Structure formats: structure tokens, C-alpha cells
Automatic annotation (TrEMBL):
Ranges where the Histidine kinase domain occurs: 414-631
Broad EC category: transferase
Positions of the Response regulatory domain: 677-792
Ranges of residues in domain HTH araC/xylS-type: 824-923
Pfam families: HATPase_c, HisKA, HTH_18, Peripla_BP_4, Response_reg
Designated name of the protein: histidine kinase
Origin species: Hymenobacter sublimis
Length: 928
């Protein structure tokens, strides 16, 4: 591109002008002052005197911004101080200031630094060598001498003196003692009766001085080598009641809180000797050395006595100096700001000059860029129109896909509901005939059991199909709550205990921890573990073994749940397809729908977990669920988890495989027979084994060795009877009984207490706690066995009593005891929902805030019946009342009580009362 001649001439003149401006600014800048690095090796900076020294240095250094000041603190460690000095040498310092911790150990390294040609300033504590550049500090011998003369005048040249020395081996302590002793020698009436060593800090005085004062109660005055030691001496004297008799003199004379000047003004100590920290003088001497100006090798700081005669003057002077120092600091800050402003203005000037030059160059490119941009903008506008058209098409496709997805979901939901209605009509009469109907022939009971199992299986497939569709369209949310994963898995396994026992399969549970808090969605993981356990039970042969283990993976913040079986295993051909939907494998036996494992995988991934497996044909399979211990906040719910195991089933019993189910097999009665479960809680291993041996031929027996484990087993297994020792570790037997009776889950269980304490008042205490029987050791095993049978028979009678009360009038159950309160709440919930034909055991358990298994065990233990039978009984009892009302037809009564049809109502009513509803109405109307 050609530039017009006038424009080129102007640009040339502009560039020359900018160059001259930049040159003039560069010439105006002054050369910076030389930089210095000063290293300071401090023995400690923890006390007030050392802090004052460091503050003085920093105050003086504020006048020398070109100095790089580096501090290393040895904390009373000579070896560390030597190492730190060597570190300063490696860093490259121009001058070293040393305040030695101990003179002997530090002298060699100071000489080495001096011999290297680096100036050394000794501050406060001298070394044993003369190889140093300058010394700054007080004359400690003079300090001690001045203190001795002042003490002589204060005591009238007669009295007993105690000296609190500094750290042994330090030059200040040695010199001060030397000067003090020399001064006292001139006064025959003064006697130094004792000395106390310290480490320059107050706690050492508090620990050592009391014993010395008790040994020398005649002491008139204490001379402490610094004001901190003097304050400690005062505290000891006050503790011993000597604070009015003993005078105290210290050294340092620092201003500020708890400084020597304040201690004198407050009358805590009699006087203090000014010992200047020398921080300012050390920096001044160092700068004279570095700038090669005249300096003194020995810079001795003067001292003076500060007592009540001049303490106010000293305080005012120090406060005035502090105020002036603050003014100086403010002026320095203002000067620093002005310098920063000047530097920023210079920078801005450079930037502006460079910007002007750049603008001149960029202006030449703007015109060409403008033309290129116009061409590019036209192209972009065409592309934007094309993209907009494509976006509108994508949005239309997405909306159409959303509408189709919603339609599919509604179709599957409606289809599922249509399937559930006939399934309910099939299962209702079948359950009635199996539980409350007339006596059936074995073949009939077998056929009805076959119908119930397959209807339940069909309902399970419908539920799985619904879950599959929800996962497929993303309509299954995760609502996680924090709960005990161990208890959750154990409760699911309880449902599989009976069918596994019928087939002789050993069902083992091996959690690594008794409790494991995990964030999880109960409804999702319930389906995952139920499918895995159901699959394991299906493919495990009789007398096989299923093992469920839980292992926390704390470093990865994960938990691993494994389900291992000894079944047929998975063939190599099936392994690649085992998680595919509707895949049934090549095995000919025990085929399912092909949805269980696929559903478990989808739900596990939805829960941000992983599902894997290991299998060998003929040697079993292991499915591993790996879950995170915590879930993101958006997946959490504030609602407490309601654990409802076996969510696919309609009733309390799990559908067992056809090969393992016999006609007429139902839940064993927990009465006085061999199926009753007895829990033994005894901490003595021999007594525990003896009781289990005697009871096992007649009952099922589980054992616990302490009260806490016994309570946990009682809540988990709901035994029919508990035998408990009184003397248990941590939680006594009486406390166990009290907690059992207070918990409605276990309040109905009879408890027998065993104890070696046979006093009448102790037996009364046991009965008051709620025990049903109190036996003393040694006891007769036959008597114990017969007592347990009697208690179980009484429990059966109590069940009959509750059933009679409920059969006559459900409102008559008075909540006087825990069991009656439970039955009253249960009855109220059922009566409030009688019109709901879809009322299920899960709904009732959820209303009570418990799990399905706990509800079933409680109702079975108290009433000897299932929850479904209980609901049916309430409905039929209510039906007897409603049939007496002639204004209601039989069909209206049936629908009002939640029966799906009048025919099902008539069949159920006649099976219970041996008359039809119409016959019952005629009989009672005629009787009325």
C-alpha cells in the first residue's frame, strides 16, 4: 500500500519528536543508590528486650530503603545459630550483625566471617575474640556495679541480698554478677546470701525461687538480671507474703506494657537499670562501615537508674519519642507514596510515548484492516444466517423428540397400571384362599401357590420394565440421604433368609465395619441389591453358599459391596452380553426376563457407581457394586431414608424358586415349638455356650456377649424370647431390659434375667425394670426350659387377646402399654386408608416410619398373623358394621372398604364368617 507524501512526512516528524521526549525523560532519571545486604543472627526474638532491639533496627532501617535486611533467629540454640550464620554467608551478605547466644561456641564462626573480609558488628553479647569490626552494647560490668551501689544506698548499707542471675555461661550474666559483687564488697554491712540461676525467662524464677526464699527468709532485697526475672521474683514474694518486706531491683528499663518503667511506676519493683537494646546504634554503625565513613570500634551504651524519682520523666520521654517515631513513620510513608507517584508518572510518560508511537504505526494498518473487515463481515453474516436456520431445525427436532419421549413414558405408565389392576384381582382372591379360606387339598394349595408366585413374578417384571423406561428417558431422579449401608443391606438379606434356609443354602453377611455412613438412594440401591441377591439365589444349587461382604475404600472415598455365590457361573460366551437388556444367556435352566442385571447396572451408574463381575464356569460368580461415600449436593435429599427391602414383592414373603418350594410351606410359627428364636446375652463364654447347648435342641438360638450387641441383634432379628445376664460389661442387663421395653419393636419380647445376686431388693429391681422372669444362679436347666415354654404360651394367649379385641371393635385397643400403642397407631392408619384398594404393606410401613420387614415381624410377634391378613381383618370387621346399614348396598360397602370388586368382597367375607354378606344382613336385620 502506498502512503501519500504529506502523511509520510508528518509520520517522520512525529517519530523524531517521540524519540527526543523519551531521551529527555531517560536523562532526567538519577542513578540508583548502591544496594546493601545486612544479615542479622539473633539468639532469640521472643522476649520484650529483643523485640525492642529489633524494633529499633527496623526504625533506623526505614532511613535506608536500599538495605536488604535478613534476620535469622536461633531460639537459644548455639549450634543452630552457627548453621544460620553459614546460611547467611551462602546467601551473600555485605555485613553481619551477631547477637551471640553463648560466647564460646559462636566465636569460631564469627572469626571465620571476619577473616573472609566481611565486616562483623557484635551486638550486646561479646565473643571471646577481638576479631570483629565493631561492638555495640552496654557495659554489663558497669550495670552490675551501678546496681550494687544503688542497692547499698537503698538498704542503708546493711542487709541481706539475693541475686537472680541470667543463663549460666552467657556474657551478660557473668559481667553483671561480677560488677554487682565488686560493688557489694565495698559495703561490709551488705551480704550476698544466695544466688538463683535462670534462663532469662520468668517461669524459671517461679520454679526455683520459692525454695530459696524459704531457706533464706531474712532476705531484704532481690537483684534480678532483667525485668522479666524481677516480675517473676515479685510474683513469688507475693505468693509467700513477702511482697511488702522484700525490695526488688531489675535491669532493662524498657517502656510499654509490663516493661521495667511500668513496673517501677506501679510499685512492683523498686528500681530498674536502663540497658539499651542498641538496635538503632547497631544499624548506624553498620551503615558507617558499609559507606566507608569514620566509626568507633567500641560503642558502649550508657546506663542509669530508674526509680520513683525519675520514672515519670522517663515515661514521658519514651512516650514523646514514640510519638515522634510515629510522625517520622507517617512522613516516610508519605515520602514513599510521593516517590511511588513519581515513579508511576514516569512509567505513564513512557507508556504514553510508546503508545503514541504505536498509534502512529497502527493507524497505517487500520485503513487496510477496515477494508478486510468489511469483506469478512459479509462472509460471517451469510454463515450466521445458515447457522441460525440449522439451529431452528435442531430445536424443532429436539422438541419433537421430547414430545415422543413423553408419549412413550405415558404409554408405559398407563400400560403398567392396566397390568397391575388384573394382577391385583388375581393376587387378592389367591391370597385370601391361601391364608383365610377353607381347608385345601395339597394339590390345590400347590396350584394356588404356583399362581401366586407367577403373579408376583409378573408384577416384578412390570416394575422392572417401568424402571427400565425411566432410566432410558432420564426420568428416574436420585434422592440420596445419609444412612447406615450395613444395616440397609442386612435388612434386604433378611428377606432371603427363609427361602435360602429351605434350600439349605448358607447365607453369610461379612461387613468390615458394624456401621458405615453412606449417602445413597434407598429405592435405587434396594432394587440393585435385591436383583443381585435374587440372581445369586436362583443360580446357586441346594446346600450352596451366598456371601455378601461390605468393604470401605477410604483412600478412594468409595465403598465396595460384593455378592458371591457358588453357583454355575457364567460362560465365556455370555460374559460379553450379561448386562444387555433382555439377554437371557445360553443356559437352559433358571432363565429370567433378562432385565435384572441390566437394570442393576443402569441404576448403579445412575447412582454414580460401578457394577462389575468375576465368574468362572462351574465355580460361581461374584458381582461387585462400587459406590461413592458421598454424592453431589444436587443428588441429596433432606428426607430421612425409609428402608423398604424387597420392593418388588406384594407381601412379606419372597417368592422362592419352584424347585425349592413345597406345597403348604409358610412362615414358621414363633410359638413354643422348635422354630421359636431365643436370644442369649451372656458375657461369660462358658455360660453362654452352656445355655446355647441346652436350648438349641428345642429352639433356634442366637448369642451375644455384651449388652450393646444384644440390643442390636434384638432389633434386627426380633427374637421370640431373650435370656439376659444382669452383670454385663458397659451396659448392664437392667439397662438392656429397660431399652428393650421402651422400644416398640422389641417391647413385646419376654425377657428372662439371670444373675448371681439373689437379694429380694435386687429381684424387685429386676422386675421393676420390666423383666418377665428373674432366675438366680445356679439355676436348674429343666426349670429354665419349662419357664421359657410357659412364657411363649402366655405370649400366644396375649396374641389371641389382641385379636379378639380387634375383631370386636378396633377402637377399643387402649394405648396403655407400648404394644397397645403400636396396635392403636397401626389400626388408625389402616382405618384411615380403608377405601384405598391399592393400600399396600409398604404404604403402612412408610406411614409408621419403619421398614417393611420390621413391620411384618412386629405384627407377626404380637398378633401371630401377617400385615395383609391384619388389613383384611380390619376391612371385614368394618364390613360387619356397615352391612347393618340398609341404606348401603353390598357393592357400596365393598368399594367403600377398598375391595376391588363386590364378588371379591363376598368371597372374602364368606371365607371369614362362613356366611355371605347378604345372608349376614338378612340374619342380623331379622334379629333386630
Amino acid at each position: 500500500m502506498r502512503i501519500p507524501a504529506p502523511a509520510a512526512s508528518f509520520l517522520a516528524r512525529f517519530v523524531v519528536f517521540v524519540g527526543l521526549a523519551l531521551g529527555s525523560v531517560a536523562c532526567a532519571r538519577k542513578a540508583p543508590p548502591p544496594k546493601y545486604v545486612i544479615g542479622f543472627s539473633q539468639c532469640t526474638n521472643g522476649d520484650a528486650w529483643r523485640q525492642a532491639m529489633l524494633a529499633g533496627m527496623k526504625k533506623e532501617l526505614s532511613f535506608y530503603p536500599e538495605v536488604d535486611f535478613r534476620l535469622k533467629d536461633a531460639k537459644y540454640n548455639s549450634a543452630l545459630q552457627e548453621q544460620q550464620i553459614r546460611e547467611l554467608l551462602q546467601e551473600g551478605i555485605d555485613l553481619l550483625i551477631v547477637s551471640a547466644n553463648e560466647t564460646e561456641p559462636i566465636t569460631p564462626i564469627v572469626e571465620e566471617v571476619y577473616n573472609r573480609g566481611i565486616p562483623v558488628v557484635i551486638l550486646d553479647r561479646r565473643t571471646t575474640s577481638k576479631l570483629y569490626t565493631a561492638f555495640v552494647g552496654g557495659n554489663n560490668v558497669e550495670v552490675g556495679h551501678t546496681a550494687g551501689n544503688y542497692v547499698a544506698n537503698l538498704l542503708g548499707q546493711r542487709g541481706q541480698v539475693l541475686e537472680v542471675l541470667g543463663a549460666p555461661g552467657s556474657s551478660p550474666a557473668t559481667d553483671r554478677h561480677q560488677g554487682f559483687a565488686q560493688a557489694l564488697a565495698a559495703y561490709p554491712g551488705l551480704r550476698l546470701v544466695a544466688q538463683v540461676n535462670s534462663n532469662w525467662e520468668r517461669p524459671s524464677v517461679l520454679a526455683r525461687l520459692p525454695a530459696m526464699l524459704r531457706a533464706h527468709p531474712e532476705v531484704d532485697l532481690i537483684f534480678a538480671h532483667n525485668d522479666r526475672l524481677a516480675l517473676g521474683a515479685y510474683q513469688v514474694c507475693k505468693q509467700l507474703g513477702l511482697d511488702r518486706e522484700v525490695k526488688i531491683v531489675g535491669v532493662d528499663g524498657l517502656p510499654g506494657p509490663r516493661g521495667g518503667i511500668e513496673l517501677v511506676q506501679d510499685g512492683i519493683i523498686k528500681a530498674t537499670l536502663l540497658y539499651s537494646p542498641g538496635g538503632e546504634e547497631a544499624i548506624r554503625t553498620a551503615m558507617r562501615i558499609l559507606r566507608r565513613t569514620p566509626f568507633n570500634k567500641e560503642n558502649i551504651l550508657s546506663t542509669m537508674v530508674i526509680d520513683s524519682t525519675n520514672v515519670l520523666t522517663m515515661k514521658l520521654q519514651t512516650e514523646k519519642l514514640a510519638s515522634q517515631q510515629q510522625d517520622i513513620q507517617r512522613q516516610q510513608q508519605l515520602l514513599h507514596q510521593q516517590r511511588a507517584t513519581y515513579a508511576s508518572q514516569q512509567t505513564v510518560l513512557y507508556v504514553l510515548a510508546a503508545a503514541l508511537l504505536g498509534a502512529a504505526l497502527l493507524g497505517l494498518l487500520v485503513w487496510r484492516a477496515f477494508r478486510a473487515n468489511r469483506r469478512i463481515n459479509r462472509q460471517l453474516e451469510e454463515q450466521n444466517q445458515e447457522i441460525l436456520s440449522q439451529r431452528n431445525q435442531i430445536q424443532a427436532f429436539a422438541e419433537q423428540a421430547r414430545i415422543e419421549t413423553e408419549a412413550k413414558l405415558r404409554f408405559f405408565t398407563n400400560f403398567s397400571h392396566e397390568l397391575r389392576t388384573p394382577l391385583t384381582l388375581i393376587l387378592g382372591p389367591v391370597e385370601e384362599m391361601l391364608t383365610s379360606g377353607p381347608a385345601l387339598l395339597p394339590a390345590q394349595r400347590h396350584d394356588l401357590g404356583l399362581i401366586r408366585r407367577n403373579a408376583q413374578r409378573l408384577l416384578q417384571l412390570v416394575n422392572q420394565l417401568m424402571d427400565f423406561r425411566k432410566i432410558d428417558v432420564g426420568k428416574m431422579p436420585v434422592r440420596a440421604t445419609e444412612g447406615n449401608l450395613v444395616a440397609f443391606v442386612r435388612e434386604i438379606m433378611d428377606v432371603f433368609e427363609r427361602p435360602a434356609r429351605q434350600r439349605g443354602i448358607s447365607l453369610r453377611f461379612l461387613p468390615a465395619e458394624p456401621t458405615l455412613p453412606v449417602w445413597f438412594d434407598v429405592n435405587i440401591l434396594d432394587k440393585v441389591f435385591f436383583n443381585l441377591l435374587s440372581n445369586a439365589l436362583k443360580f446357586t444349587p441346594d446346600r450352596g453358599q451366598i456371601t455378601v461382604s461390605i468393604q470401605p475404600l477410604l483412600p478412594e472415598r468409595m465403598v465396595r459391596v460384593s455378592v458371591e455365590d457358588t453357583g454355575t457361573g457364567i460362560s465365556e460366551a455370555d460374559k460379553a452380553h450379561i448386562f444387555e437388556w433382555f439377554y437371557q444367556g445360553q443356559q437352559s435352566a433358571a432363565r429370567g426376563s433378562g432385565m435384572g442385571l441390566a437394570l442393576a447396572l443402569g441404576l448403579t451408574r445412575l447412582h454414580q457407581g460401578q457394577l462389575t463381575f468375576i465368574s468362572q464356569p462351574g465355580r460361581g460368580s461374584t458381582f461387585v457394586v462400587t459406590l461413592p461415600l458421598e454424592l453431589p449436593a444436587e443428588l441429596r435429599s433432606g428426607i430421612s431414608p425409609t428402608q423398604v427391602p424387597a420392593a418388588f414383592l406384594l407381601d412379606e414373603d419372597i417368592a422362592t424358586p419352584a424347585s425349592a418350594t413345597d406345597a403348604g410351606v409358610g412362615p414358621a410359627a414363633a410359638g413354643a415349638g422348635g422354630e421359636a428364636l431365643v436370644l442369649v446375652i451372656e458375657d461369660n463364654p462358658e455360660v453362654n455356650a452352656f445355655l446355647a447347648q441346652k436350648l438349641r435342641p428345642h429352639f433356634q438360638v442366637s448369642t451375644a456377649t455384651d449388652g450393646a450387641a444384644g440390643l442390636r441383634l434384638a432389633a434386627e432379628t426380633i427374637p421370640d424370647l431373650i435370656v439376659c445376664d444382669v452383670m454385663l460389661p458397659e451396659l448392664s442387663g437392667l439397662e438392656v431390659v429397660a431399652q428393650l421395653k421402651a422400644d416398640w419393636r422389641t417391647s413385646h419380647i419376654p425377657v428372662v434375667l439371670l444373675t448371681a445376686r439373689n437379694a429380694p431388693e435386687q429381684q424387685v429391681e429386676g422386675v421393676q425394670a420390666g423383666a418377665d422372669l428373674y432366675l438366680t444362679k445356679p439355676f436348674n436347666p429343666a426349670f429354665l426350659l419349662e419357664s421359657l415354654r410357659t412364657l411363649l404360651r402366655n405370649r400366644d394367649k396375649q396374641r389371641e387377646h389382641f385379636r379378639r379385641e380387634l375383631s370386636v371393635n378396633t377402637a377399643t385397643v387402649a394405648p396403655q402399654r407400648v404394644d397397645q400403642k403400636f396396635l392403636a397407631d397401626l389400626t388408625a392408619i389402616v382405618e384411615a386408608n380403608l377405601s384405598r384398594s391399592e393400600l399396600s404393606v409398604e404404604d403402612v410401613a412408610r406411614s409408621l416410619g419403619i421398614s417393611r420387614v420390621q413391620l411384618y415381624r412386629k405384627v407377626k410377634a404380637v398378633l401371630g398373623t401377617g400385615v395383609t391378613d391384619f388389613i383384611q381383618g380390619i376391612r371385614l370387621t368394618k364390613a360387619r358394621q356397615l352391612l347393618l346399614d340398609d341404606d348401603l348396598t353390598i357393592a357400596e360397602v365393598a368399594y367403600q372398604l377398598g375391595f376391588s370388586s363386590p364378588s371379591y368382597f363376598s368371597t372374602s367375607f364368606k371365607a371369614r364368617y362362613q356366611v355371605s354378606p347378604s345372608e349376614f344382613r338378612v340374619l342380623h336385620t331379622a334379629a333386630g
